Amino acid sequence: MNNSNKKLKNLKKEIDHLQQNNEGESKPKQGSGASFGFKISTEIVAALVVGVGIGLIVDNYFGTRPFGLIIFFILGAFAGFLNVYRVMRRIEKQ
Amino acid sequence: MSASGEKHSPLEQFEIMPLVQIKSGGVDLSFTNSSLSMIITVTFITLFLTFSVNTRSIIPSRVQLLSELCYNFIAQLLKDTIGNEGRKYFPFVFTIFMFVLIGNMVGMIPYSFTFTSHIIVTFALAAVVFIGVTILGFVKHGFHYFALLAPQGLPWYMLPILIPIELISYLSRPISLSVRLFANMLAGHTLLKVFAGFVLPLGLAGILPLAFIVALTGLEILIAFLQAYVFAILTCLYINDALHLH
Q: pTM to 2 decimals?
């Protein structure tokens, strides 16, 4: 019993030591530049898709043929930039 | 010579094939290779997590260490992004993370099917996250949750412009979440197949694309993990947004 306790303590010491050495390495890397660009582009495209979708629905519903699409496309573009801004701020914080 | 490659389109691997035909009320509920792949994934996760921690030894075996690593990884992620109250959402995030991760990994096995390379699967996952987070926000804050759409300290005349923008930004979350995972898996697997198509026609020089494929497979495994991680961390961030209004 005593022997195994000692063994456990030794093991804990070793684990602590290894963990200290490993500090900072545990987080996965953010990936290459390509994945970074991909992340940004999906944010813009997604916002544009939603904007255009809302625009088309509004046009269909109220019969305001081109204007809903135009307005919501522009709003979608703004939302895309807002998304990119948020992603960049989050990356900067890390 | 070029005709030999005609039969094998790089996109052939994404084809859905019904294994058991089930049709009920005009709805196609067939058991497909995608369903089979998902069942393999879920079975593997269940067996792996149950049997690896079954012994519950203090000094863990390698397999037990692996599942504890998964647990710690998500637990730490929740602690970093949400804080201590994030522990409640551990089962949800862990389930999603493991499903995506093992699904991607099962897709890396040759001749298997990658269900995460279909937008409808990833969109369903993202929609679950999106709807769940929205409901969570309304339960926690009531109608005050709409304040998420209006940043604080904003002059009133900016509201008509900013609320639609914020609303579109909010609605674009599930789309960007699902498109990112889907496109990464689709692009990676297609690229692998395209380069694999170069190996035989090039003859002896085919060693070059073959070596490239080996490297690319390693990269794909990294991406498979990274995308599961991104899916999990974004889920955590959305839960955090719903819990703490700015």
A: 0.82
